[in-house]
Amino acid sequence: MSPFPYRLVATDLDGTLLRADESVSDRTRDALAAVTAAGAAHIVVTGRAVPWTRHILDDLGYQGIAVCGQGAQVYHAGEHRLLTSLTLDRQLAGLALSKIEAEVGPLAVAASRDGLDGEVLMGPGYRAQEGPLPYVPYEDPAELWSAPLTKLYIQHPALGDDELTRVARETVGGLVDVVMAGPGIVEILPLGLSKATGLSLAARRLGVKAAETIAFGDMPNDIPMFGWAAHGVAMGNAHEELRAVADEVTASNEEDGIAVVLERLLSA
Question: Is 44 helix (H, G, I), strand (E, B) or coil?
């Protein structure tokens, strides 16, 4: 077997490492185990905040560092503690929200609170994703701003995700960042924050460089990570914006796309 050509394998979770039922296939687990046995590190880089990520990492037996919350949180899974955490300026977020609503009309809003056990708050009309992830409904808008936040989620009753993202960026791009992270998931983040910033912090802790990194993803929020890593691999189910900047496209998350690439590199 040839040496594995990268020292770091960075994988998104939803639509990438995880299948639709939030499981990781045995084939993909085996491929990642072979990569780590060959001397590379595997790091999860996800838009999910720690409370929505921890149970998946625990199930994987993942003991290393993970990047959560679109780069806002660097989390040590083995020690169950936050190493770094960046919060969203609530005054700027409120201003951005009001500007977007002035442009497109009322939005449904949710928010992710900071911390290891930060709750996800969901306001009236917000369409929650199906599945077991916990959230707390709120009615009083004041509740949204009562504690530090990592990000806001916004939905519009008529605009699609791509259009809402475009309009929001054009309206408030100098105040905050706006990303589309999945179906029905448009997020407002601190200006300058991305998966790339979180991954670069984590890689520095691991003593690994961008030139030694291969990254896997499926959504536009993975574009900065692809720009940072030496090689970006889009899943077969990936958004067209990510496919356009990827170095290669593999099979879908349901077809073990990560394993397909890792097995090829291990045997090359």
Answer: strand
Residue with tokens 């040590």: 76
d(CA 170, CA 227): 22
- CA distances 17 to 4, 74, 100, Å, are 19, 19, 33
pTM: 0.94
**Per-residue pLDDT reduced to its tens digit, 65-107:** 999 999 999 999 999 999 999 999 999 999 999 999 999 999 9
Nearest-angstrom CA–CA distance, 52 and 215: 21
Q: Give the integer Cα–Cα distance in Å for 173 and 162.
A: 15
Residue 267: other Cβ atoms inside 10 A:
9
Q: What is the 3-state secondary structure (H, E, C) of 193-245?
A: CCHHHHHHHHHHHHCCCHHHEEEEECCHHHHHHHHHCCEEEECCCCCHHHHHH
Helices (H), 38-179: 50-60, 90-104, 161-172
Q: Count H helices, E strands: the chain?
A: 8, 14
Kindly state the DSSP code that residue 85 receives in the 8-state scheme. E
